[in-house]
Amino acid sequence: MFEKIKKYYDSGVWSEQRVREAVAKNVITADEFKKITGKGLLG
């Protein structure tokens, strides 16, 4: 799922908030969130 979400985020289909929601739903990890967005969950 990580690769799909990264692709969506990089292409602008998903916002940072939507990626955060994927972490909250345990679809991806906090570490994967950082790899996708370049930011930690706290900012």
Summarize the structure.
With 43 residues, this protein is mostly helical. Helices cover 60% and strands 0% of the residues. It is built from 3 helices and no strands.
Keywords summarizing the entry:
43 residues, mainly alpha, 3 helices
Mean pLDDT: 97
Q: What is the terminal separation in angstroms?
A: 23 Å
Proportion in helices = 55-70%
CA-atom Rg in angstroms: 9 Å
Protein structure class: mainly alpha
Helix count, DSSP H or I runs of 4 or more residues: 3
The figure for the number of domains is 1
Order of helices and strands: HHH
Sheet with the most strands, sense and barrel status: none
Strand content: under 5%
Shape: globular
Beta strands, count: 0
Give the low-pLDDT segments.
Answer: none
How are the elements arranged and paired?
Blueprint: H1 2-10, H2 16-24, H3 30-37
Helix pairs in contact: 1-3, 2-3
Molecular structure report:
The chain is mostly helical. The chain has one domain. It is built from three helices and no strands. The longest helix has 9 residues, at 2-10. The mean pLDDT is 97.
